[in-house]
Design goal:
heterodimer; A: about 120 residues; mainly beta; globular; B: about 110 residues; six-stranded mixed β-sheet; about 0% helix
Chain lengths: ~120, ~110
């Protein structure tokens, strides 16, 4: 009965590989997000989807491509992985389009290590 | 200047101490203020939410907002070792599309 679930929790892969991270929420929220948290714990927005439509696409390399097959799912595909992509990636969802009124519910994160 | 500034710490206090965590922000349009707590290797969880100047209390936690100074605080009374975590402030405006997070303050409460 996890509210926001991400898979996998850990991902170790070589440079140049392509990988995907999946996210699903069972809260009935319309908006989902991907955040990247660096080693200093700074959370940076990458993408936001509202009801399957892309709302935010921050300055992220186009090797990163989000896909939302329905409003309960937001997956992140990364091509040609680089060492600098190593980080913890968090999926989140909110009831309102930006989370200002209700805040976010976060998943437990995917720790990506590129070697 | 970053929109939200937060001292990363680490902050170490003895059990039972009063803890004060702070953030400053630059955009006066910000209206909604939150504090998240993040335990090691976990996702952030919403701890406190407020949208007006003044204080909001929830158990041992008090969130304080001073819009005139663009300054928000989280106070933890009678701190416990289980409060050891990273605390992130998050701020939002009506015109924004996502929350703006501070860098987080790492807190350690020692028994």
């Amino acid at each position: 009965d996890t509210a926001v679930s991400q898979t996998p929790k850990y991902l170790v892969t070589q440079m140049g590989n392509d990988k995907s991270i999946k996210c699903e929420q069972n809260l009935g929220h319309d908006t989902m997000y991907w955040y990247k948290q660096d080693s200093k714990k700074f959370l940076k927005i990458m993408f936001s989807y509202n009801n399957k439509e892309l709302i935010i696409n921050e300055t992220v390399p186009n090797r990163f491509s989000p896909k939302s097959p329905d409003k309960a799912h937001l997956n992140l595909h990364i091509n040609s992985l680089e060492l600098g992509d190593s980080a913890v990636y968090f999926c989140a969802s909110s009831q309102d389009p930006a989370g200002g009124f209700s805040g976010y519910t976060f998943g437990s994160g995917t720790r990506l290590t590129v070697v | 200047q970053k929109e939200v500034e937060q001292d990363p710490g680490p902050l170490s206090v003895p059990e039972g101490a009063i803890v004060s965590l702070n953030c400053t922000y630059s955009n006066s349009a910000f209206q909604y203020f939150m504090w998240y707590r993040q335990y090691s290797r976990k996702g952030p969880e919403l701890l406190m939410y407020t949208y007006s100047s003044g204080n909001k209390e929830d158990g041992r936690f008090t969130a304080q907002v001073d819009k005139s100074s663009k300054y928000i605080s989280l106070f933890i009374r009678d701190s416990q070792p289980s409060d050891s975590a990273t605390y992130l402030c998050a701020i939002h405006s009506n015109s924004g599309y996502a929350l703006n997070f501070g860098k987080g303050t790492s807190l350690l409460v020692t028994p």
